């Protein structure tokens, strides 16, 4: 059996980047109606949606580049937990019926990233190398 552990940090980075870009897409749908508007969201956006979109933009960008990944992922995980319980769970107990699967997946992937870190290909790693070089 080949040793695949050397690829683990790279696959973690790919998971972080792809998930963060998908998360960021939700913000672009709220603010720019790109690639499409979110159905049923009024204009102007309610304050709660504006705050959610701001969290998605900031944490999505931070996680994409791998800067303050753990903090950003923890905040994004909390937002998705709140979104699930506030918007999806009241509709039905079953995630397939309340359309909450993506909120659950985002929540737990971000929670994992908060503990696992950014993997390779992250600004966090470059910052760590710089601080180690100074010591």
From TrEMBL:
It is found in: Cell membrane. InterPro entries: DoxX (IPR032808), DoxX-like_oxidoreductase (IPR051907). The keyword Membrane applies. The chain crosses the membrane at residues 7-24, 44-64, 71-87, 93-115. Signal peptide: none annotated. Keywords: Cell membrane, Membrane, Transmembrane, Transmembrane helix. GO terms for cellular component: plasma membrane. The keyword Isomerase does not apply. Its main location: membrane. It is a multi-pass membrane protein. It comes from the Bacteria. Belongs to the DoxX family. This is DoxX family protein. It comes from Rhizobium anhuiense.
């Amino acid at each position: 059996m080949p040793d695949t552990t050397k690829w683990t940090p790279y696959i973690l980075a790919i998971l972080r980047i792809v998930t963060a870009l998908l998360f960021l897409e939700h913000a672009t749908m709220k603010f720019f109606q790109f690639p499409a508007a979110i159905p049923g969201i009024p204009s102007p956006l309610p304050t709660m949606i504006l705050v959610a979109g701001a969290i998605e933009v900031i944490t999505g960008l931070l996680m994409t580049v791998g800067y303050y990944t753990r903090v950003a992922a923890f905040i994004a995980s909390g937002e998705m937990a709140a979104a699930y319980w506030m918007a999806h769970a009241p509709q039905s107990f079953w995630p397939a019926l309340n359309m909450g699967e993506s909120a659950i997946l985002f929540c737990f992937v971000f929670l994992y990233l908060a503990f696992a870190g950014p993997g390779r290909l992250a600004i966090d790693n470059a910052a760590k190398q710089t601080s180690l070089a100074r010591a």
